TrEMBL record, chain A:
Protein name as it appears in the record: FAD-dependent oxidoreductase
Keyword annotations from UniProtKB, A to Z: FAD, Flavoprotein
Gene3D superfamilies membership: 3.30.70.2450, 3.40.30.120, FAD/NAD(P)-binding domain
Cofactor names: FAD
TrEMBL record, chain B:
Protein name per Swiss-Prot or TrEMBL: DUF2783 domain-containing protein
Lineage of producing organism: Bacteria, Pseudomonadati, Pseudomonadota, Alphaproteobacteria, Sphingomonadales
Organism of origin: Sphingobium fluviale
InterPro entries recorded: DUF2783
């Protein structure tokens, strides 16, 4: 049933780093596993680390026996960096990546941007607004981290060929060069990308909009002094009537996205001799560059109706797809695994009922819908579908030069930020009046300096009660983080509205669950239970 | 109901005349461009999202929301 053998994959997919094809597991032909993750992309690897760090044995199945070249995702948001930091690779990624916070939007041949934005409006946080880094570098880092976790068993060249939904497990048929075998997985997490084999094998829906437009990704290597900023052009002279995006990656690699229109020869447009004139028109006839990776893509904005199907859980591109403008693909996938990891952990430990995973469905669908909404709006602005739509777009750009109000309509991609769940099922609504201050239930924790380090370095394993002064009680399963005697806490107090005696309960994924001006043991206990999926009273 | 739909300007004839004069001698495409700019400028001035939404509905010939 597999689409191709590992050997055949090599003919289609360029190789970044060889991995050894994994042998048959000792327990073949039939084994039992608590968690099986399908997919060795960044989302699958991050999910494996999250669950591995929480102490679970994890099997990861990857159909390739190599890490593919092809940079694919390059922009990683602040929220993703917070997640990666929790997984032990955030600092390395920032060190290796290109940090950027500023985006500029240009129109036609004008030298001055019509609009610019800053992705990190709240300063004094550990992580920057965005980094750019090649996907394969990030995958290398995630794999290095996995090598430190003996409970993660990653199997290269092991392809899923069948999935059967049971009541208390999922049966997985696996094919590898060393032979075929079967796993009874207590939980199967499908992180196997937009052409998800697991989704196909289960015959599940994947609905939404396909945009009739093609974009060329040209990753090229070239020297040159340009700032680390996101530059976007509407209708530039070097790609008339279309858009272009320029992004810097490490090692002098630049990502250029050329909008091509709909009726094109998709195979011809990625040939180097056809890409070359576009690049020279943009960067000058004498520009010195080497091609790294060319690819052409069509947008889709789609998602599955549900991400939880019995014992099979979907995360990342297998569950939802967006247009690339806004960097909401891989960042959306990291949001999924961040949300799912701690919930599955509690279920596996018997500390929460499997119903808790229904809140993964609710929150991850909310995230996907917000990403799809933003991505669809950006795409409609960037690639107008009617004459009137094009006239509105151009009128906005024209007015934006002169009038500040019009700049807020300019949409070259609304870049990924953490999604909030103000009506989420796990929140305990406020009972005090916070006067619009602090971080409300359902919102992601905002980083702030704390002592010599950062708040977000101190939260993310389990539930934490962040408090300004000892509340005088403890609740089993909740770590107290009393900042009253720590240094450098002014910003933290301001950002959380944490007056003396006040406390904020944080979930293991650094989202706020509840907060109180004067917490009581009973209130914290009840909020904790609600966060673990017990229906609120 | 946020949108004012009762008479709200003193010199309706004067404003109407300037609106028509704005389009004098323009091609249809250019007129569309100018109208679009006008819409955007006015929408920002109104600011109130509900009022704008009601105007959008009325302009499209829909019944009140």
């Amino acid at each position: 049933m597999g689409e191709a053998s590992p050997v055949q994959w090599r003919e289609r997919v360029p190789v970044w780093r060889e991995r050894q094809a994994s042998p048959l597991p000792a327990s073949a032909p039939r084994e039992k596993a608590r968690i099986v993750i399908v997919g060795t992309g960044p989302v699958g690897l991050a999910q494996a680390i999250d669950l591995g760090q929480r102490g679970h044995d994890v099997v990861v199945l990857g159909r390739f026996d190599f890490v593919p070249l092809g940079s694919k995702a390059i922009c990683f948001s602040k929220r993703s960096l917070d997640i990666l930091d929790r997984l032990g690779v955030g600092e390395r990624a920032v060190e290796r990546g290109v940090i950027w916070n500023v985006g500029k939007v240009f129109w036609k041949d004008e030298r001055e941007p019509v609009y610019q934005f800053d992705m990190l409006p709240v300063k004094h946080q550990k992580m920057p607004g965005f980094i750019n880094i090649q996907q394969y570098y990030l995958e290398d880092m995630l794999l290095e981290r996995i090598a430190e976790l003996p409970n993660i068993d990653i199997r290269w060249g092991h392809d899923v060929t069948g999935v059967e939904l049971g009541n208390a497990d999922a049966g997985v048929a696996v094919a590898s060069a060393a032979g075929d075998y079967h796993i009874d997985a207590e939980w199967l997490i499908a992180c196997d990308g937009n052409k998800s084999t697991v989704r196909d094998l289960l015959g599940l829906d994947f609905e939404g909009r396909v945009f009739e437009d093609n974009f060329l990704i040209a990753d090229v290597k070239m020297k040159g002094e340009r700032p680390s900023e996101r530059w976007f052009w509407f209708d530039p002279p070097f790609n008339p009537g279309q858009s272009v995006l320029l992004h810097k990656q490490p090692d002098d690699v630049w990502r250029i996205d050329f909008q091509l229109g709909w009726n094109i020869d998709r195979e011809a447009c990625v040939r180097p001799e056809n890409v070359d004139p576009l690049i020279r028109a943009m960067l000058g006839p004498d520009v010195d560059y080497e091609p790294e990776w060319y690819s052409v893509y069509t947008f889709q904005c789609r998602r599955m109706e549900r991400f939880v199907h019995g014992r099979v859980l979907f995360a990342g591109d297998s569950a939802h797809l967006v247009s690339p403008f806004g960097a909401r693909g891989c960042n959306g996938g990291f949001a999924d695994i961040d949300n799912l990891g701690w919930k599955l952990d509690l279920v596996l430990r018997g500390e929460a009922n499997a119903d808790l995973l229904e809140s993964y469905n609710a929150e991850a669908v909310t995230t996907a819908d917000e990403n799809i909404l933003n991505s669809t709006r950006s795409t409609d602005f960037i690639t107008p579908k009617s004459k009137v739509s094009a006239i509105f777009r151009d009128a906005v750009l024209e007015l934006a030069r002169e009038f500040p109000f019009a700049r807020s309509f300019v949409n070259s991609g609304r870049l990924s930020t953490a999604v909030s769940y103000p009506a989420g099922p796990l929140n305990t609504p406020d009972c005090d009046d916070w006067k619009g201050k602090g971080v409300a239930p359902g919102f992601p924790a905002l980083d702030a300096p704390l002592g010599e380090g950062w708040l977000l370095e101190r939260v993310g394993k389990g539930f934490v009660l962040l408090c300004n002064g000892d509340p005088g009680f403890t609740v089993p399963g909740v770590e107290l983080l009393d900042i009253a005697d720590a240094g450098n806490i002014d910003l933290l107090i301001e950002r959380y509205g944490l007056s003396p005696g006040a406390a904020t309960l944080l979930r293991p994924d650094q989202y706020v669950a509840a907060r109180w001006k004067s917490p009581t043991e009973a209130a914290v206990t009840e909020a904790l239970a609600r966060s673990k999926g017990a229906s609120g009273s | 109901m946020k949108l004012i739909t009762s008479p709200n300007i003193a010199d309706a004839d004067g404003i109407y005349q300037r609106l028509i004069a704005l389009h004098h001698g323009r091609s249809e495409e250019d007129s569309m461009r100018v109208n679009t700019r006008l819409i955007l400028l006015l929408i920002n001035h109104i600011g109130d999202e509900q009022a704008v939404n009601e105007a959008i509905s009325h302009a499209g010939g829909e019944e009140e929301q």
